[in-house]
Amino acid sequence: MKLAEALIARADYQKRIEQLKKRIHMNLKIQEGDEPSEDPNEMLSELAEIRQELTSLIKKINRTNCEIRFDDERTLADALTERDQLVDQRSLLSKVVDEASQQVGRYSQSEIRIVSTVNVKAIQKQVDHLSKAYREMDTKIQGMNWNIDLLD
Fold this sequence. Notes:
Organism: Sporosarcina gallistercoris
Order of helices and strands: HHHH
Helix content: 55-70%
Number of helices: 4
Structural class: mainly alpha
Protein name: DIP1984 family protein
Pfam families: DUF6847
Strand content: under 5%
Radius of gyration: 24 Å
Largest sheet: none
């Protein structure tokens, strides 16, 4: 199995777990004399099995990410961490640009003038640079995921 396939399977397991949780919750209590539409005990057993499979898969994914080299200096796990940090930093700076760019209307010359405390243009350049770095790193990671075999 390729790493990308394992990541897709992980997402599928996570969705199935969330769906099962909702279905279990909906069938925990019924009116006396009625039958639940699904047996919560069966779903709890299925949930336990899926969690066990998911745990095993996540361990293999983590092991693979820690063993495979992204480049000469970093493992794939290192690159994933750096990519996540790029997203977080870009998100923060993007919010700063949005907030600092908002115009506050004045109705008369006597009203207080609101000005930005940051250089929006410079921060926007940082956002653009982070976006490009993220895209380049993510593209390489995604490409690698389809070429790397999942380690046991």
